[in-house]
Amino acid sequence: MSKKALHCKIGPSVLNADLSQLYSESQRLLNSGADYLHLDVMDGNFVPNLTFGHPIIKCLRPKIPEAFLETHMMVSKPEQLKCQFRVELDCRGRRDRGSNLGQWIEPSADAGVDQYTFHIEATDDVPLICRKIRESGMKVGIGLKPGTAVSIVEKYVDLADMILIMTVEPGFGGQKFMTDMMGKVKWLRNNYPELDIEVDGGVGPSTIGLCAEAGANMIVSGTAVIGAEDPGKVIATMRDVVENSIQKNQLER
Ligand code: DX5
Ligand code: ZN
């Protein structure tokens, strides 16, 4: 069977962008060579911060119809399929008996999200969430916080399209890259040569070499791209480093 070719993909995070200009900031990143956009959804519970959710993404989607959108779901209950807190009302304030939407998964799919990346620490039922995400038509990403051992994800790798190794504690942009997370990336790459492995947190031109060498091929970068004078140059530099590592590793295999 032929091997799947691994590709480098750069997905800037808009977390530290000017969120009052979400569309123009997103378009600027796409024009700068982003392969996808990494949208950090936070619920103020799983992490001590709040951002935006599917209603805003639904407004953004038609303005950038071709973009691949990944949501990084830093939420406590990614599996909650029925809305427990919201009384379903129609636009005249009457109870909407027909609605049976999930709290996050189905509304995300409805908003036009392409990949739903949730945290393994936030659920007891990883297979159920993976199945629901797929049934909703999205790709599946599973994320691990810095304190979570990589061996825990082994039994779920086949259910996922991508594994995310956090290189900072989730919740805020602009934090220091945790070099000691590279062991997890190396372990995954050694065991799964064709897996999409994403890193997120403190990744930029000064840390991309470590990520690439460890085997990451999907690169989230927030402040290093957003704050750059020339975001296109930063994206291109990181892409070169990762592509070179992929080629080198494939020759060595
Ligand atoms: C942190 C978020 C990251 C963050 C990355 O919780 O998941 O996506 O925005 O930003 P930088 O690259 O600035 O660490
Ligand atoms: Zn993120």
Automatic annotation (TrEMBL):
InterPro entries: Aldolase_TIM (IPR013785), Ribul_P_3_epim (IPR026019), Ribul_P_3_epim-like (IPR000056), RibuloseP-bd_barrel (IPR011060)
UniProt keyword Magnesium, yes or no: no
Statement: the UniProt record of this protein carries the keyword Zinc: yes
Record's cofactor remark: Binds 1 divalent metal cation per subunit.
Entries under Pfam families matching the protein: Ribul_P_3_epim (PF00834)
Quaternary structure annotation from Swiss-Prot or TrEMBL: Homodimer.
UniProt-annotated binding residues for a divalent metal cation: 38, 40, 72, 200
GO biological process: carbohydrate metabolic process; pentose-phosphate shunt
Cofactor(s) essential for the protein: Mn(2+); Co(2+); Zn(2+); a divalent metal cation
Active-site annotation: 40 (proton acceptor), 200 (proton donor)
Record GO terms (molecular function): D-ribulose-phosphate 3-epimerase activity; metal ion binding
Catalytic activity as recorded in UniProt: D-ribulose 5-phosphate = D-xylulose 5-phosphate
Its EC number(s): 5.1.3.1
Entry superkingdom: Eukaryota
Name of the protein: Ribulose-phosphate 3-epimerase
Transmembrane residue ranges: none
